[in-house]
Amino acid sequence: MSTSLAMHPRAGRSRPGAGLRRHLLFTAISSLALLPPFAAAQTVVPADTTVTLTGDMPAWFVPDVAGLDFRVIGNLVIQQGGVVDSGSTWFGRQQPGSGTPSVPATVLVTGAGSTWNNREFLNVGTNGTAATLTIAAGGTVNVGGELFVGNFSCCQGAGSGNTGAVVAVEGAGSTLNAQSIRFGGIFSQVRMNILAGGVVNSQQAS
Question: What is the SS3 assignment for 189?
C-alpha cells in the first residue's frame, strides 16, 4: 500500500495566508511524499500522522483513481470551515493482538462550514480495523453512496478493548447525510451515537 499523500486543491478557495499554511502543513508531515497532480497513486493518511484542514486553506480534492480508494489509517481533522472532497473511502486502523489496547484511526469534522464530502461510499472500521468518526459543533459529512459502519466482520480477532467502528454526531447543526447506512460486525463494537441535537439523514438503514 502506498503511503503518499497527493493534494489536489480546487480553484476558488484560496484565502490570504493559505500558501504559508499549506507549506507548514506539508513540512510537518515529513513522512509523506507530495506527488504531481498527474501521478496515479493512492491517497493515504498514514498511521501516526495527523492531517488538518481549515477554512483558510483550499479545499482538498481527492481524485478518483481506478482501484485505489482514499485511505485514512491515521488522523484527519477538518475544522474552522475546512473542506475535503473524496471518492470511495476506507477508514480504519489495523489493531494489535489480544490484550493490547486499540488505537483507532480518527476523523473529526468540527465547526460550522467544516465538511467532508464522500462522492461514493464510506467504510468506517472495516476488515478488523478500528475507526472513530466524530461530527461535532455544526460539522457536516455527506456520503453520496452507502455508509458502512463495521462492514466485513469488523473487529473479529482484534485486541480486547477494541473501540471497533464508532460514528458520533454531536451538537446542534452537526449533520450526517448518507444515501443508505449499513451496520455489520460484532454488535457491541459497532455504534452510532446521535447526541445533543445531532442529525442523521438517510433513506435506508440496516
Answer: helix
